[in-house]
Amino acid sequence: MPTSLGSNRLSDLSPHLSVLVGFAAGLGGGLIVNLTTGRTAWVVGFTANVTRPIEDLFLRLLFVLVMPLLFSALVTGIAGLRDIRAFRRMGTWMVALVLAASALASLIGLATVNLFQPGKGVDPATAEALLHTAGKAGNVFAGETPTVLGSIVQIVPGNIVSAASQGNLLGVVFFALLFGVGLMLVRTEGSKQLLTVIEGLFDVGVRLIGIVIRLAPVAVACFMFDLTVMFGWTLLVHVSAYVGVMLIAFALHIGIVFCSFVWILGGMRPLVFFKAVQEAAFIAFCTSSSNATLPTALKAAEEGLGLPSQVTRFVLTICTVANQNGTAIYEAVTILFLAQFFGIPLGPSEQLMVFAICMLSGIGTTGIPSGALPLVSVTLGMIGVPPEGIGLVIGVDRLLDMCRTTLNVVGDLTIAVAISRHVGVETPAMEEA
């Protein structure tokens, strides 16, 4: 038994270390080639016949899985509210707070990256050359730029099969939300069986995504080699700026949104709250998994914060899937950073669509390590940014995944505190405030 346990821990750790090794190998190799030979004939042939096919395979595997995975995650998350009649007041508050927190997270992410613009400064000719090399993956904004109202209309798909086949992520998300609401309202034996099937689809999707992510080290090495051959040291400067802007956005969300929710809505001092949830935050940081942190979060809520179990078990279980503010910020910053890096301007209509995607993904992304990467890849293709550009951020994704998971878990506990007070529960921690 000890041998088996040790082996499992090793298998959990090694993929992350392997990604770092792949990142370093591709970065080092690309820099050496960039400084010595540049893009000579053999380098062009090597990238065209070796590295790029590997990158394309990795991205195609992500694309083929993201639609069913996102659909099943959103449907099961919304359908999990089927007990909302028994907890009508609690459910209403939870839905309102989750939507508000996700919207604010997306706005903070967009505002921060627009303010600091970490992707600006790349030579336009170089970026244009890489764009032609990578190709544009299904730019939904090709041609005439849609109006704001037109972008809203585009959210509703005319045909769900066509939306899925054409990579219309917002259309699939809208249908999943609509379908989830239908399952929440219909309580027949058939609907229960259908929900069980969709839950099985989610489990299979999570497992397959986990397998694909294990192929990431080789893909990351290829991504980084191609990008550093093209951009050289400029790449490191922009990646560092990207990480810095991301951490600033995380800090702003904690300082503004979470503190306001806890203090104003929950009637609890922020310092008391953060002290009580520090163990759950630490576990979230180490595991990068909201699902794995759920038991510790329940313990922190009931023992550390003194919240009633009927509130915490209902709220935290659903919020593990349906409230991921860190993921919303991560996606907003990453998508706009890569658009800036490749010199692709995003106007109000495009940024509105990015906001909608980030907000909706913040209430329905899988609570597993690197669960946001497939969604980011598809969204990049939707706005005309080469999905290959995700190689810029995969190497540092481990650190950011740890940070955004911590934000997700602390956000769940924040909502639990706010809801407890508004359903008539007063705890000693609230009385101290």
What does this protein structure show overall?
There is one protein chain. Helix content is 78%, strand content 0%. With 433 residues, it is mainly alpha-helical. The chain has one domain (2-432): Proton glutamate symport protein (Orthogonal Bundle), CATH 1.10.3860. Helix 2 (41-79) packs across helix 9 (216-231), helix 3 packs antiparallel against helix 10 and helix 12 (278-287) packs antiparallel against helix 13. Mean pLDDT is 77; it is low at 1-13 and 133-148.
Shape: globular
Oligomeric state as shown:
single chain
Low-confidence stretches: 1-13, 133-148
If you compute it from the alpha carbons, what radius of gyration comes out, rounded to the nearest whole angstrom? 22 Å
Q: How helix-rich are the residues, as a percent range?
A: over 70%
For the sheet with most strands, the description reads: none
What sequence of helices (H) and strands (E) makes up the elements? HHHHHHHHHHHHHHHHHHHH
- Quote the average pLDDT: 77
Number of helices: 20
Q: Name the beta content range.
A: under 5%
What's the CATH architecture? Orthogonal Bundle
Report the span from N to C terminus.
48 Å
